């Protein structure tokens, strides 16, 4: 019981908006609705919702590195792509038997994380910071995109997996759970929905605990004043590197889930448009808060899809306008602005009573 | 034994010789003030001691250990701590959180909360603890950063203009606080322009001029030194 209480304590703190029984009751209601939702919907719509959920992980990675850590990474899509292609190469070569797809999921995320460790080491210990960090990471993702773009020929293969250039890599097996009565295949439907929803809740709560811990305190301190943080005895480059690697793993998770969802990945997922969209979701939502990031990302994605259906290319222009408006009206994010306004309203109402 | 020793320290910025063969020995338990005109190389000397800059030549010893090659955070672990010239607080965080970040590596849980409360009371910032540090007055920011610096319980505290922007009363209070900390065993090295503060606390004074140690001695000796008056203290003290 005590353990449960202290677990709940560690979910709340000055680093995350939303606390107290009211917030968690709302959280439980939203979660219950999310769990019940497939029962009232069709397979296609549920699959489409999974697509939205998939992107939340890369948004959270940016929230962590940029919003909390203060380092703008413009290239989270590099890790997204590495993990996505990694999963494809592994499963096309080794198949889906014996639960290997889940091993491949972890291996692919591991590849993205290892790459981030290497890249991050040179950036943070080479004292690259601020706008230069953004430029380097953007250059890396664009380089990867250019590289993958020229792999259309049959000579570009890893084992039996053709890289396929802009035709995209496809036909990798979906996540498959071995089961006595026949394997359970998580196609982009209800099964995958619950799997991704579960991951989303785990990652969200895990990040809340992380950011409200003493580790999170140091990360925020580095954003506010790196020199002061170091002069309090913190090895700031180590903290930045760990944050960057965790972020890369989350972006990698997004990449694997995206590949699993559509059984398809192309170099465009590491291109300029792909790299800039997560920035917009996170900036519009509120980059310095996890909850705002999740809500903002889902809302903007849903709006973006609706616009793409009806307005095609104008959707991207709208995204640009949205970013400019956010920067002008609510630089800390629209969703975060609304949430802070609501909490002020509630506390005033309580005070009046 | 000397707590901090600088041996023949040199630093160039391009053609500018900002630290020119500086030798300085700081006895454990003393309050030492570093004075000198603007551009004398006082803050650069602090950065060298803290490892933010690395000397072109020369060595830095702390408690007998050569720390010249150590990174900044490692020097802090050895027992150094600093308050910067421009208040280096975490502006977007509350005053309480500022202190929490400083204290969390030594204390946990309820003990941490108690320590923060104690430090807030010591600094007289209890009423401001939920305020965002960026919204505090200049003096309060100075206090908050001094609080963060001393919370590490350093053996040597470096203060870069601790009383800048403070009223005479606040300056005097800061002086008293420095003396209290020193009585508890903390060695202090302070850069200061406010001679009232220097007179109040300093046991020894070093005058830097053009990157070199120009004069050294008790405050009486320094004030009486005509050469110092000529380059720095000027007519006011002549």
TrEMBL record, chain A:
GO terms for cellular component: plasma membrane. Keywords: Cell membrane, Membrane, Transmembrane, Transmembrane helix. It comes from the Bacteria. One of its GO terms (molecular function) is branched-chain amino acid transmembrane transporter activity. The keyword rRNA processing does not apply. The chain crosses the membrane at residues 21-40, 52-70, 77-96, 102-124, 131-149, 184-207, 241-258, 264-283, 290-310, 316-342. The keyword Cell membrane applies. This is ABC transporter permease.
UniProtKB/TrEMBL annotation, chain B:
Involved in beta-(1-->2)glucan export. Transmembrane domains (TMD) form a pore in the inner membrane and the ATP-binding domain (NBD) is responsible for energy generation. Gene3D superfamilies: P-loop containing nucleotide triphosphate hydrolases. This is ABC transporter ATP-binding protein. It comes from the Bacteria. Residues 4-235 form the ABC transporter domain. Keywords: ATP-binding, Nucleotide-binding, Transport. GO terms for cellular component: plasma membrane. SMART domains: AAA. One of its GO terms (molecular function) is ATP binding. SUPFAM superfamilies: P-loop containing nucleoside triphosphate hydrolases (SSF52540). Pfam families: ABC_tran.
């Amino acid at each position: 019981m005590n353990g449960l209480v202290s677990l709940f304590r560690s979910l709340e703190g000055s680093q995350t908006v939303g606390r107290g029984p009211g917030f968690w009751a709302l959280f439980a209601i939203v979660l219950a609705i999310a769990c019940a939702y497939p029962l009232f919907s069709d397979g296609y719509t549920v699959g489409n919702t999974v697509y939205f959920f998939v992107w939340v992980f890369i948004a959270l990675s940016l929230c962590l590195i940029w919003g909390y850590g203060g380092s703008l990474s413009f290239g989270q899509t590099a890790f997204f792509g590495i993990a996505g292609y990694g999963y494809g190469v592994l499963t096309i070569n080794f198949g889906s038997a014996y639960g290997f797809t889940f091993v491949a999921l972890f291996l692919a995320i591991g590849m993205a994380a290892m790459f981030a460790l290497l890249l991050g080491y040179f950036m943070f210990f080479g004292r690259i910071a601020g706008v230069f960090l953004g430029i380097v990471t953007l250059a890396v993702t664009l380089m990867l995109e250019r590289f993958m773009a020229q792999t259309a020929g049959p000579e570009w293969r890893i084992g039996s997996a053709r890289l396929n250039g802009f035709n995209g890599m496809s036909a990798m097996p979906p996540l498959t759970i071995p089961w006595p009565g026949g394997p359970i295949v998580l196609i982009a439907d209800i099964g995958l929905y619950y799997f991704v929803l579960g991951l989303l809740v785990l990652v969200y709560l895990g990040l809340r605990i992380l950011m409200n811990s003493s580790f999170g305190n140091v990360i925020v301190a580095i954003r506010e004043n790196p020199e002061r943080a170091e002069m309090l005895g913190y090895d700031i480059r180590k903290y930045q590197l760990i944050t960057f690697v965790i972020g890369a793993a989350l972006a990698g998770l997004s990449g694997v889930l995206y590949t699993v969802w559509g059984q398809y990945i192309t170099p465009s997922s590491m291109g300029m448009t792909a790299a800039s969209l997560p920035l917009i979701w996170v900036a519009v939502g509120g980059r310095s808060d996890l909850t705002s990031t999740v809500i903002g990302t889902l809302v903007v994605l849903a709006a973006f899809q609706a616009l793409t259906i009806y307005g095609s290319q104008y959707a991207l222009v709208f995204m640009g306008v949205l970013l400019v408006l956010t920067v002008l009206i609510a630089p800390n994010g629209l969703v975060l602005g609304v949430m802070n306004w609501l909490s002020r309203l509630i506390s005033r109402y309580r005070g009046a009573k | 034994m000397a707590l901090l020793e600088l041996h023949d320290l040199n630093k160039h910025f391009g053609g500018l010789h900002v630290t020119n063969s500086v030798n300085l020995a700081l006895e454990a338990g003393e309050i030492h003030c570093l004075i000198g005109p603007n551009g004398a190389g006082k803050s650069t000397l602090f950065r060298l001691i803290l490892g933010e800059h690395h000397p072109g030549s020369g060595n830095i010893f702390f408690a007998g250990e050569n720390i010249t090659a150590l990174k900044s955070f490692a020097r802090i672990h050895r027992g150094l701590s600093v308050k910067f010239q421009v208040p280096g607080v975490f502006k977007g965080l509350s005053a309480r959180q500022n202190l929490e970040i400083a204290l969390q590596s030594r204390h946990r849980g309820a003990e941490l909360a108690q320590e923060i409360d104690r430090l807030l009371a010591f600094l007289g910032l209890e009423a401001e603890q939920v305020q965002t540090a960026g919204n505090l007055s200049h003096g309060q920011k100075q206090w908050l950063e001094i609080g963060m610096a001393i919370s590490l319980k350093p053996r040597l505290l470096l203060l870069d203009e601790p009383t800048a922007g403070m009223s005479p009363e606040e300056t005097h209070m800061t002086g008293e606080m420095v003396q209290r900390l020193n009585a508890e065993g903390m060695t202090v090295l302070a850069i200061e322009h406010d001679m009232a503060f220097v007179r109040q606390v300093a046991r020894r004074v070093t005058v830097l001029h053009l990157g070199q140690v120009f004069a050294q001695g008790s405050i009486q000796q320094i004030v009486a030194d005509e050469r110092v008056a000529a380059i720095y203290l000027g007519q006011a003290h002549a």
